[in-house]
Write a structure and sequence with these properties.
By secondary structure, the protein is an alpha+beta fold. The chain has one helix at 25-34; strands at residues 4-10, 36-42.
């Protein structure tokens, strides 16, 4: 494991067909230089009560 860990949690939008935010190569180079590992965690849709 690296020196830092980031976990980005997300839930897909209804009707989404792709696209969205991009993690740039510049950001990836910075993460590599500081020893950061990135995890993407997909969650089921949340229901508001």
């Amino acid at each position: 494991m690296g020196s830092y860990v980031a976990d980005i949690g997300f839930s897909p939008r209804k009707g989404a067909a792709g696209g969205g935010a991009v993690i740039s190569t510049g950001a990836m180079k910075i993460m590599l230089s500081i020893g950061m590992e990135l995890y993407l965690s997909e969650y089921l849709e949340f229901n508001d009560e």
